[in-house]
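Notes from hallway chat w/ T.B., transcribed later so I don't forget. T.B. wanted the structure written out for a chain they're using in a teaching module, and asked if we could keep both sequence and structure tokens in one place. Agreed to drop them here.
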Amino acid sequence: MVTTDGVLADIGTDHSYIPIALLQRQKIHRAIAMDISKGPLERARANIAAAHLENYIETRISDGVQELAEGEADAILIAGMGGELVIHILTEGEKICSAAEELILQPQSDIQKVREYLRGHQYKIVDEDMVLEAGKYYHMMRAVRVEQDDTWDKLNEQTRTVCDIYGPLLLRNGNPVLRRFLVRQHRQLTMLLRTLSEQPESDAIQKRISEVKEELQNNESAYTILGVIKNAGI
């Protein structure tokens, strides 16, 4: 998803595998590999040296994008961490992040919240993908800053919620991994609802039943909103 052919800032780089791979594939010219801890950066430096890329990848200790200058990176990558932390980094470094040509994000949790944040802060998701590896689903997205995006004004609240949960472009493009996920989720939620309905009635059980019914409604809406989001220009 990195498209700028320029400088990449990898936030929370850990082993620096991504900057190394991107340079080897000639997708970027240079990279700044950043991490909050010395340990990961030491591992990163060892891998960078082994790949003979010391002249192309700079390492920095940084809390989020704190040590990145405005406009220094064309693409900012934030991957392999929880969604709340992704949002924290974007919020604390809003000036820096908004100056980049693109954000490449791969939150491990709270993906709906990340999409909501982007939608509410003048970012547009222009590419998405979803993969399944070792039983775990991974979502990734590329977002760009926009002055105005009235796409969402054309959609009702239910459709916006479903897009935030499952990904507007994943839905529009009929992503095959998302389709399998939706089928699996529907089966799990249906079984859970049946189990809850057999439990002795209580306020807690009724609350959980309502939550599961709402999740099921969102799941089933994912199959029916395709025409709506296409008409809205997503």
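Follow-up for T.B.: The two ends are 18 Å apart (CA to CA). Might be a good example for the class.
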